[in-house]
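Reopening this one. Same input as before:
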Amino acid sequence: MIYIYYTYQSEENHESLLKNVLPNFPYDFQEKIMRYKRWQDAQLSLLGRTLLYKGAEEIYGYNLNEKEIKYTKYNKPYFEDNLIWFNISHSDEIVVCALSNQYEIGIDIEIIADFELDSFRFQMTESERYNIEQSHSLKDAFFEYWTQKEAVIKAHGHGLTVPLKSFEIFDHKTEINNEKFYLKEIKIDKKYKCHISLKTSIGEIYLKEEIIKNLIF
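Same output, byte for byte:
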């Protein structure tokens, strides 16, 4: 089963999060959070890590306080012992964290907002561009495309060394270098588009909203 935790940022809760939640994390992470100039950026990063730790504890009984998060050369975070696989994404006011103890996973969420399609023409194939332009809702179609592509890239793990236009998605499936990836839409909030991707067909998903104020691990 795939587990997805999500939450919304809140300026009202920010000082409480810094006082009661941030001290649960390693000192270097605390320093990173305090270096952010905007409270929104600091809180989104903190909430993502909080969802990860809370999900790992609730679902698998893992205490991650002593587990160091490492990064691949493509800047993908992971735990060295592969205790769990996870991926975090945020956009505007929402943060999501996907967890699995069986599969590498990618998740992407984006708020559906105004955009200029021409700015992205070099990142999509001609058929993708045509399908978006012919859709009933340009914004819905574009962010459907974008979150699917980003989720696959994150599941693949090599970041933007894999050009977005180098693969196409058909019927929620795609391939990169003969590796198959599967996708599923996650409906969290009608103002957002969200997709997850795995290297296997996607079965049951557990979705949980967290209200994070004074969480102590």
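So the earlier flakiness isn't reproducible anymore. For the record, DSSP finds five helices and ten strands in the chain.
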